[in-house]
Structures are given as structure tokens and as C-alpha cells.
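Sequence decides. Our protein:
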Amino acid sequence: MIIRLLVLSDTHLQNHLLKNITDKYPDMDHYIHCGDSSLKNDDPLLKKYLTVNGNHDRPGTFKTNLIFNVGKYRCLITHGNKFNIYYGNEELLVFMKKKHIDITFHGHTHVPAYTIIENKYIINPGSVMMNRGSYGFGTFAIVTIIVSVK
């Protein structure tokens, strides 16, 4: 079985970008927003999305962390600021081990990244706006997970 996830973060009220990306990929299995949408939790643009709070969202609008399963994988959605992600993955990795998380999706840095540490996957889709660093354009991620069925 193939499971496809659309993962984005840090839309910061760039609602036309959020809408365009969502409309371009209408048949994903999961839609993930890693925070800083700056929208209310009942906004129609987020209807399909599993969404967490970012540091630019009103406190309590969304949960800080969401844990869910994709096949045999235990997944975490977080913004990353609560794990000091600017300074590395160490705090996040400790949390992943404690909660038995296989895959984490986060944002916050506005820099796309894909990291594997100790058989743990950490995916940052960047920002749909212009990313920081050497990217002169926005980014998001499409993640494909192949789950064997027995």
C-alpha cells in the first residue's frame, strides 16, 4: 500500500499559496501543516490539514504536537520551536525516542531538510514563502510511504 502526504509549513497568511498547493494535490492521503499558518482553527483553508501551533499562531489555536500513525510508522507533527530546532535535532530526537516516534514533520526554520538519525526520520518542508538560506523560492514536501500489507 502506498500512502502519500502533502507536508507544508510557515504559510504566514500567504493564503493564496496554501490554496494553490492544496488544489494542485487533491488526492493525498494526509495533509500536514507544521504551524505558522496564522489562521484560526476553523479556517476552511485548513479543513483537510492536520495542523499544529507555530510561534506565530495564537497560543492554543492548535495543539503543540500531534502524534498519529501511518501504517506501522508512528509520526509526529510539530513546529519545532519548542525543541530549539535552530540549534539542531538533539532535543527533538530525545522526544522521538521517549514517545517511540519514527517520523517527525516540523517547520520553523524556513529551510527544507531531510535527516535520518538513528533510524529516525526528520522532515522539514521549508516554507511555502521564500525560504531562508540559498533558496530563492518557497518549498513544500510530498512524502510517499510504502507500507507492506501481510
Remarks:
- Strands lie at 2-8, 30-33, 49-51, 65-70, 73-78, 103-105, 113-117, 120-124, 141-146.
- The chain has a mean pLDDT of 94.
- The chain is about 15% helix and 30% strand.
